[in-house]
Amino acid sequence: MTGRLNDALRRVPVWPLYIAGAVPPLWWLWLGLTGGLGVEPIEALEHRLGELALQVLIAGLCVTPLRRHLGVNLIRFRRALGILAFSYVLLHLLVWLALDVQIPAQIWADIAKRPYITVGMAGFVLLLPLVATSNDRAVRWLGPRWRRLHRLTYLAVLLGAIHYVMLAKGFQIEPLLYLGGIVVLLALRLPVRRRLLPA
Amino acid sequence: MARRWTSDLSPRDVTPERAFLNRRQILGGLAAAGAVTLSSPRARAQEALEPNSWEEITSYNNFYEFGTGKDDPARYAGQMATSPWTVAINGLVDRPGEYAFKDIMARMEIEERIYRFRCVEAWSMVVPWTGFELADLLDMAGIQERATHVAFETLLRPEEMPGVARPVLDWPYVEGLRLDEAMHPLTLMATGIYGRDIPNQNGAPLRLVVPWKYGFKSIKSVVRITLTDSEPPTSWNVANSREYGFYSNVNPDVDHPRWSQATEREIGGGLFSPRKPTLMFNGYEDEVASLYEGMDLSVHF
């Protein structure tokens, strides 16, 4: 069953994922310019991009557990998920810089003074070496070190979710669900778990 | 007590949106021709206030009883039954009781107030409210000597309010003012916007408007007003006292712990809307600064 599924997945090309991934930001930008994002389009665009980035990062975290526990192999798509997620984080950051805060002096003050922004920025910075080494040449060059380096994803995603939890007003359940999901996906990777689970 | 504060440019009680726009154009034209000289700096400040559109004012709201999304109130608040409506006025008053909204309306003088509205989230609007001074309502109930504060409570009706199923805040929503703040001529009980009945998402049928404080102080859909002799609890302060003080006066120099309050974005400017500096007491410094004389506003934030 999973064998047939994996065979079918092997025949699915990866490139359409990049095309599909470009659609939401472009569509939202169009909506934002034409009034489709409501009367405060900057906040809407910023939040949608941030949330999409988290969702795609979570999708990337699902690849390994799906293969290990259900035998479904999506590893071919993982790089695209990572690059798309990074692109969304970058756009989210650019919207914040250029459209939301706007004032350079305030940007630096915010990064230093506002913990939720510090945390979000830290997550973004951690993604930089990962996107820089997401090509085949870097994978070959780094060898086994590539896997160790890319474990930074775990911390980056966690920081992204904490960033979301920290900016909620009042007690809100949605950011906590993201954080909870991420913690579960990370816990599935703990070596202890691996030994406890049947091979 | 009514009409203690007037903006020189709202001579009529009720102005439809189109007339608002026309009047601005006419005044603009006259001013350009030198035919109109505005009398005072305050009048000029009012002149500069350009109300947001009905659409903007009624589609972007924080009313967590209907959900935490900005469009949730416009989507779900329609279920809230606002007629009949009574306001319980009790505590340290001579004539406590359940006051029917329509009886209140019959006794109050309705006037128009174009106010800046500054949310604690650093966005702002200009809203052409209609309503009456809170002072008149409190006088109607008779304020007793011992009263020092006023507590307010929002309707709590879970079957009509999907948001209260979640413990975002400790429901019902409560707010409070010091008595002198409550009696200030700027402090309004709004019952309309652009001369129309106030829509549910904006706090029908009557809500507080304290224009020099962050928006969350201006409690919506009020069902209870209690005169007290001590500072009453307020919902956001109870939820997070480090971030939300009892006073919550608009103050560009006192940041929210998580974001700057120095600037704000006016709703309606689109994707490239610039930030503008936030004004002390939201631009009502001349009118209200004396209320806080001698107080350290970074302590009593």
- Compressed to H and E, one letter per element, the order of chain B equals HHHHEEHEEHEEHEEEEHEEH
Secondary structure class of chain A reads mainly alpha
> Which protein chains are joined by the largest interface, and how many residues does each one contribute?
A-B, 29 and 32 residues
Give the ordered list of helices and strands of chain A: HHHHHHHHHHH
Q: Could you estimate the helical fraction of the residues of chain B in percent?
A: 10-25%
Counting helices, strands and paired strands, the structural category of chain B is alpha+beta
Strand proportion of chain A, as a percent range, falls in under 5%
**What count of structural domains of chain A?**
1
Rg for CA atoms of chain B:
19 Å
Oligomer: heterodimer
Characterize the main sheet of chain A.
Answer: none
Give the overall average pLDDT of chain A: 92
**CATH class of chain B, anyone?**
Alpha Beta
Which segments of chain B are poorly predicted (pLDDT under 50) over 5 or more consecutive residues? Answer: 9-15, 25-44
Give a description of the structure:
The complex is a heterodimer of chains A (199) and B (301). Chain A has 199 residues and is mostly helical. Chain A contains eleven helices and no strands. The longest helix of chain A has 30 residues, at 41-70. Chain A is globular. The two termini of chain A are 18 Å apart. With 301 residues, chain B is of the alpha+beta class. Chain B has one domain (49-292): Oxidoreductase, molybdopterin-binding domain (Sulfite Oxidase, Chain A, domain 2, Alpha-Beta Complex), CATH 3.90.420.10. Helices cover 21% and strands 22% of the residues of chain B. Chain B has nine helices and twelve strands. In chain B, strands 3, 4, 7, 8, 9, 11 and 12 form a seven-stranded mixed beta sheet that branches. At the A-B interface, helix 3, helix 4 and helix 5 of A face helix 3 of B. Chain B: InterPro entries: MsrP (IPR022867), OxRdtase_Mopterin-bd_dom (IPR000572), OxRdtase_Mopterin-bd_sf (IPR036374), TAT_signal (IPR006311).
